[in-house]
Amino acid sequence: MTPEITYPQFQAIAKAIAADPANANYTKRGVEPLFYAGPQCKIMIVGQAPGRVAEESGIVWNDRSGDRLREWMGIDRETFYNSGKLAIVPMDFYFPGTGKSGDLPPRKEFAEKWHPRLLELMPDLELTILVGSYATKRYLHLKSSTSLTQVVRNYRDYLPTYFPLVHPSPRNQIWMKKNPWFDEEVLPQLKARVGELL
After folding, report:
1. What is the pLDDT of residues 45-77, one digit of tens each?
2. What percent of the residues of the chain are helix, what percent strand, and what percent coil, each to the nearest 5?
3. CB 134 within 8 A of CB 90
4. Is the peptide bond before 160 cis (omega within 30 degrees of 0)?
5. Distance between CA atoms of 179 and 159, rounded to whole angstroms?
6. SS3 state of residue 119
């Protein structure tokens, strides 16, 4: 189900990531970096980091959060994984482990090191969907104290290049109920923009 990286330039980056000493513990265990990118990609999805289930299955966004993200985008699993037009590039390509209140955050230096190399190889990207606070604050150069709710509410300020979103985790159900404008105003615009590009 997860698309394979078949382009040599992208395969070379994946090998370099696996060979990086910072990722030695993963590579020793046979864990591959989890991302997908290709030269024809029109949309890039930047999330935080794969979870334990993703690491074990080798399939990113293969959970309830992924189902909800696809619903928000208005696309099915086949399009999400196999259209060749969607890049899936988390802030860290490995599961960072579990802390007291859930998964640990992605490593700080990871995206800075590897994302630019991938972006250079995707000249046709027209939209980057930023999922959650880590991706949003890095790509939009925001302070850590910035309210993600306000950023998402003001999503038009970042179009057409970026589309900030809250994380589609089931844990955000309370947030969704408190902010009905997200379902009413933001998601129709996201679906329309994704539909245009695909």
Report:
1. 999 999 888 888 889 998 899 999 999 999 999
2. 50, 10, 40
3. no
4. yes
5. 21
6. helix
Residue 3 lies in a domain: no
Question: What does the alpha-carbon distance between residue 102 and residue 52 come to, in Å, rounded to a whole number?
Answer: 11
**Phi, psi torsion values for 93, nearest 5 degrees:** -90, 10
Cα-only R_g, the chain: 16
Spatial contact of 175 and 183, defined as CB atoms under 8 Å apart: no
Query: CB-based contacts of 79: which residues, under 8 Å, 6+ apart?
Result: 86, 198
Confidence of residue 2 (pLDDT cuts 50, 70, 90): low
Q: Residue holding tokens 């490593």? A: 107
Where residue 107 sits, what CATH number does that domain have? Answer: 3.40.470.10
pLDDT digit string (tens) for 68-112?
999 999 999 999 999 999 999 999 999 998 888 778 899 989 999
**Domain membership of residue 70 as a residue range:** 8-197
Q: What does the alpha-carbon distance between residue 99 and residue 122 come to, in Å, rounded to a whole number? A: 34
